[in-house]
């Protein structure tokens, strides 16, 4: 068992355990912190696969911006363990867990029909995750989606600002 | 070449990504807090990112990583707008309970 294998199993275990804690945690702030742990575990997995640019972008964008935004909103609305909505009835929770479990079972059972994927070691290029190579592909082959993403950000920014504005006769808190 | 490709078969990454995705599905169906449901959707998106990057590394195809880049961009924009919507809903109904959001029925 080499270091890479041990790291893969450890990071997978941490990710799955933290994901379960996200779902079953009573305090919303704890859920956010567990989700940050999931992101760090997945970043470790990306580094194992030598996807360096995306590992760093994952930390900066997801753990550093999106989760901080979630924390802002949770603290702004002052959500605590006591203000949590009452949980769904036991039978509904049971049905939800069974549904998710069945989905997982179907996906994993479909793996049985596949031939094990043979890795040809000579054709593996280990450097597609580096910034220069990814940048070349992004700006040469995927230029149009890149420019459209900037328009998407403009739309999202305008939408978020318009949604957040206070109207004239609104109750303020 | 990353050493992990020779050690861990690709199916293990599929199992990891599917497990995270199904935990996200369970979270969306189980919880009633709108913010927790939103976080479980982010968990599902990250599970898909993991799968894309694994396939991209095993097949030496950079298109998978470019797609993850765009998924992250779209997720960031979606979170901004979604949180603005949740804050507006809180302003009007004073709760983030999705059970309170059934006014369209009447």
Verbal overview:
The complex is a heterodimer of chains A (173) and B (106). By secondary structure, chain A is an all-alpha fold. Chain A folds into two domains: 1-84, NADH-ubiquinone/plastoquinone oxidoreductase chain 6, subunit NuoJ (Four Helix Bundle (Hemerythrin (Met), subunit A), Up-down Bundle), CATH 1.20.120.1200; 127-167. Helix content of chain A is 70%, strand content 0%. Chain A is built from six helices and no strands. Chain A has helices spanning 3-24, 28-48, 52-76, 90-110, 131-140, 143-164. Chain B is an all-alpha fold and 106 residues long. The radius of gyration of chain B is 18 Å and the shape is elongated. In chain B, 77% of the residues lie in helices and 0% in strands. The mean pLDDT of chain B is 91. In chain B, helix 3 (34-59) runs antiparallel to helix 4. The longest helix of chain B has 31 residues, at 63-93. Chain B has one domain (9-97): Orthogonal Bundle (Helix Hairpins), CATH 1.10.287. Chain B is built from four helices and no strands. Chain B has helices spanning 4-7, 10-30, 34-59, 63-93.
Mean pLDDT of chain A: 91
Reading the helices and strands of chain A in chain order gives: HHHHHH
Largest sheet of chain A: none
Q: So what's the CATH class of the largest domain in chain A? A: Mainly Alpha
Whole-number tally of structural domains of chain B? 1
H and E order of chain B = HHHH
Largest sheet of chain B: none
CATH architecture call of the largest domain in chain A: Up-down Bundle
Main interface by residue count:
A-B, 88 and 77 residues
Number of strands of chain A: 0
Q: CATH first level of chain B: which class?
A: Mainly Alpha
User: How many strands appear in the DSSP assignment of chain B?
Assistant: 0
Radius of gyration of chain A: 21 Å
End-to-end span of chain A in angstroms?
58 Å
Secondary-structure content class of chain B: mainly alpha
The number of domains of chain A is 2
- Classified in CATH, the superfamily of the largest domain in chain A is NADH-ubiquinone/plastoquinone oxidoreductase chain 6, subunit NuoJ
